[in-house]
Automatic annotation (TrEMBL):
<keyword id="KW-1133">Transmembrane helix</keyword>
<dbReference type="InterPro" id="IPR008407">
    <property type="entry name" value="Brnchd-chn_aa_trnsp_AzlD"/>
</dbReference>
<protein>
    <submittedName>
        <fullName>AzlD domain-containing protein</fullName>
    </submittedName>
</protein>
<feature type="transmembrane region" description="Helical">
    <location>
        <begin position="90"/>
        <end position="107"/>
    </location>
</feature>
<feature type="transmembrane region" description="Helical">
    <location>
        <begin position="66"/>
        <end position="84"/>
    </location>
</feature>
<feature type="transmembrane region" description="Helical">
    <location>
        <begin position="7"/>
        <end position="28"/>
    </location>
</feature>
<keyword id="KW-0812">Transmembrane</keyword>
<keyword id="KW-0472">Membrane</keyword>
<feature type="transmembrane region" description="Helical">
    <location>
        <begin position="40"/>
        <end position="59"/>
    </location>
</feature>
<dbReference type="Pfam" id="PF05437">
    <property type="entry name" value="AzlD"/>
</dbReference>
Amino acid sequence: MTTSESWLMIIGMAAITYLPRFLPLGYAHRIRLPRLLNMALSYVPIAALTVIIVQTCVIRHGERAFSADNPFIWGALAAAIAAYVQKRSMVTIVSGIAVFAAVVALTR
């Protein structure tokens, strides 16, 4: 394969990767969604993040891990309480990490 063929292949692969992502976003401003659908779609990011966090906290090695020595559950619980009480992102993150680290240090 020559150098020009290689560059042509790279440019072609970039276009094939880029276009399916750009086209929906490039024309999305022309589409008006119903208000109810817009409200429903506003919950998608938090729902997806919740699934990721819960799965990380309660599933270890393909098994459910609901036990008192699971540091992920304690860290998530501390972060949830801090988020509810303080409503500040940095406090939530720091408290969750601190409790997680404390439980890891105490259980090892």
